[in-house]
Amino acid sequence: MSNFMDQNFASDEEEDDFNPVNQDDSDAEEVDSKPAKRETSADAAPDAKYGRDAHEEEDTKDVEEDEENDEEEEDEEEDDEDDEDEVRNPRKKQKRVVNPFIEDEAGVDDEEDEGDDEEDELAEYGMETHPDDLDALPQGTETDDRRHRQLDRQREIDASMDAEKQAQMLKERYGRNRAAASDSLVIPKRLLLPSVEDPSIWGGRCKPGKEKEVVYSIQQRIEQRPANSRNPMRIISAFERGNIMQGWFYCEARRQADVIEGLDAINFYYPSQKLTLVPVKEMPDLLRVQKSEELLPGGWIRIKRGKYQGDLAQIEEVETNGLNVTVRLVPRLDYGMNDDALGAPADAKRKRGAASTVRPPQRLFSETEAKKKHAKYLSSTSGLGGKSWNYLNDNYVDGFLIKDMRVQHLSAKNVNPRLEEVTMFARGGEDGTANLDLASLAETLKNSTAEDSYQPGDPVEVYRGEQQGLIGRTVSTRGDIVSLQVTEGDLAGQTIDAPVRTLRKRFREGDHVKVIGGSRYQNELGMVVQVKDDTVTLLSDMSMQEITIFSKDLRLSAEMAADGQLGIYDVHDLVQLDAATVACVIKVDRESLRVIDQNGSIRNILPTQIANKIVPRRDAVATDRNGAEIRAADTVREVYGEQRSGVIRHIHRSFLFLHNKAQAENAGISVVRTTNVVTVSARGGRATGPDLTKMNPALAMQTPGGGGAAMPPPRRGRDQLIGKTVTIRKGRFKGLVGIVRDADDNSAQVELYTSNKPVHIPRELLTPKDPVSKQPLSMGRGRGGGMGARTPFGSGGPPRDSWSGGRTPMAGGDSSRTPAWGGANSSRTPAWGGGSGSRTPAWKNDGSRTSNPYADGSRTAYGGIGNRTPAWNSGSKTPYDSGSGFDAFASGSRTPAWGGAVPNTNTGNRTPAWGGLSNSRDQRDFDDAPTPGGGYSAPTPGAYEAPTPGAPTPGDWPDSAPTPGGAFSAPTPGAHAAYDAPTPAMGGSAATPGAYGGNDGGPRYDDSPSP
Amino acid sequence: MFFLKEETKVIAMHPSYFGPNMREYLIGRLNEEEEGRCTGDHFVICVMDMVDIGEGRVMPGIGQAEYTIRYRAIIWKPFRGETVDAIVTSVKPTGIFTLAGPLSVFIARKNIPSDIKWEPNTVPPQYTDHADQVIEKGTSLRLKILGVKPDVAAINAIGTIKEDYLGPL
Fold first, then answer.
1. What is the mean pLDDT of residues A856-871?
2. What is the Cα–Cα distance from A368 to A379, expressed in whole angstroms?
3. A224 or A136, which is more confident?
4. Which residues of chain A neighbour B32 with C-beta distances below 8 Å?
5. ipTM score for this prediction
6. Could you give the CA distance from residue A562 to residue B154 in angstroms, rounded to a whole number?
7. Residues of B near A (CB-CB distance < 8 A)?
8. Rounded to whole angstroms, how far apart are CA atoms A753 and A816?
């Protein structure tokens, strides 16, 4: 086949004309071509024959050649060729001048021609030498039109041959500058750059804006004075750079003189200004073309001017001239609503002014609105599909404005379409987002990828370019070049640079990411659930909704917890909207908040509409439907309705804001009334561990005292009757004396002195007695000890009386006591008055010395009493105690004692301390003092014990100082010793007797109690 | 994945517990506080034994004693890519909430095979492929953990059943 093709050219009509060009071909070429031709001829005899026939057929014009052929038929080929060359050369030269085109063709076809010749020769030679062959051929071969048919077929094939292929072939054969063409494929571009050998370029000045005209003039001049004319123009080329280099044009020429000569008298050229030679290096820059933004249908652009300035538009169509673009816009129309009554649109200019002042919002075209006022400007046009309207000379299709605009009025750079803008365009479709052409959007966004969207540490992937497929982490960014450290593959560990546009961020499913880009999901946090090329679907932590977003707008997030914050408002915050309305924030947008108010209605508000943020109160308590206490963080469930459940976020009046993670809407927040919920689980103590107050009985007992007396104290600790010496008033054992060994509410087990045998006696038949003096003790329900407690301080019998009154039933009968307990000193004063007179001397005598031991002793005892308070409470005194606590009690109790003492003594170091107590009853002082003394509980028994011995004292007091001293001192230590902890404290007082006995040694006393 | 991990814990003890049963109390306290705890990284499943209960040290000022206890515990740390069995706690149009032991795993709709569709009209609502696969509250699922998000005292995870051998059991 290829042979045929070759021959085809050979057999062209112009065969003859080609021949002369033979000269171009070297001998070597011919040698090369020979074997091939031989093969060809050997292959097929018919071919050979055909070749000859064709030759004969067509060789009509040039007789000379025919003759040559005839003559040299039998010569060696080379001879033939040589001859040909010789003969043809002159002809060829002639022809070249006349028609250079054919010359070149001949150059190509010459070989073929030769080939033909050869074939002819061979064929004829073969025919001549082997006539037998002819015989071997079928009959009538000569007359056969097979060759004609072959020719026809050949032509058919040519005709059917792919036009492109044909063109290529023709170009190969006839291409004017074959060498250059083939070179350009091989030679790298940089080698084509101009060098010093090449013509220089001069820059000249002209009138700004007239550069083109200058160039046209030069071009014209070149045409008028071609190179071969008498006065050829030596400027090779001229060009200008348009707006970039205003007032400049450039000429290419060998010499400056050529330029000057060529530019002579060209309009707008300023010959006065020097020509500037452009350095060779800068030449390529002159011709570098700023690639204009490619506008493709479906792409996004922004309008530069006019009513729609800054608006996003989608390219519908780009005219082939590249200057006009049809765009789709969301119209801004006011439908004449803002026109004056006169009908402003009549004046286009004024209208434009109006439009610029008030810019209608972007809304899809609505024919109903247009009809209201502007029906006359509205006409329906039958669109291809969808409705189409013509309104005020603009076309509206499917609500969008379709407008032809010039490229200059559009900007394709930094379009950065925001999703909400884009969704406006998608709204026309029945299915919003699905209609979005994400691919084109992505393409637009790609161009505007801000380099700051890549931050060090971002995982990235090179997805196009030479390094496609590389995966790494960004190390740094400079401009739009990102350095990344490869983390996977062969290059792992290396740092390479890549342009931003070839990168995309890489996320894995399950990554926790944050939206950083300028979409409306900004700052949303979520987990990636799907990654598809450039788009990432993530599940928002907050709303549990799936968001699809470009990976460039994401970055890995280390943040935990809830996202979204607008100023001080955070999701799930409780805010006050007005006096009657509170609401819980369920979504934070960039500028607005979405809240659910107490009535469950949801609205969008601006931060400015919020009166204030309600700081959650930790102790807010409500009761559920069953009356159980509910607090924040409890889990509750709705009883009626939707049976929603959730954790209480906020309690506001009777409304609960519940949070349920499994609920997607409203960020999991719902509002219920407290009366409509039951507690599922309270926050409880599981997190805080065991409740010490419950586990430790000692603490359990104490709690009520401090806790506001919510619970009545336990009935008693140790029954005070136990251990007391009692006489039995009635019954079989009447008059006998014994010691109470055990006691309960109703009866006591008494060990009689006489029989050493425990007997059970009803309590009411017992009368406690002082074991020494055998004086009856007053004791409420066997609490004589209370009175006793006083006695020691009392250090004075008299106070004891008043005390006992307060504390015991007996005392109850005593009118004076009640006021005394009232707490006022005055009320007590009379009691003291009675006692003080008698006692004073005693105290006086004792002087300062006594005070110290008392201080200690009494204090300890008070402490004990304080702790005891519950015990006291059970008695008649309860109200008193509960009211003011043991402090009051203590103060009361002590006051008299010391009150009496203070005025009397007025002395010594004790005075200040006790003075404070006696006068103001400073509870704090008091509290402080006993506290270090040791456990409150411990001393108590001691305190109780103490009085018992003291009981007789009152009687003694009035009489003389020593008596009490003796009475007092002796039992006290004993009692204390019998009991416990307080003992050491009382030890101070135990020493007292000694002190008393010694009558002085004040200093010693001071020392001994102090520790 | 489960691990046997040795950890230490400091327990402060109120003086009222000082006494013969202190050790029992400490153990009880440790079990109570540790078992079932979520650190944000892992769950403590079970306290195995105590390696060492140090000597208590009375803290000045408050009288409580501090014990540093070293103990071994079985912990569970969920990993990305781990396959677990879980029980569906609720189904929503957005996906399925499940509980794999103490870990709540959410399966987003994107991670549910496309043939298993949301069917809101049944009672209770379910995801189903209208054949043998029905996912409703209480269904046992085998799922693969896609991602784990540690929180202060909780772990949230998302999972997928969009792979072979995953889905209702």
1. 40
2. 12
3. A224
4. 689-690
5. 0.78
6. 13
7. 14, 16-17, 29, 32-33, 80, 89-90, 92-95, 97, 104, 106, 108-111, 145-152, 156, 158, 160
8. 37
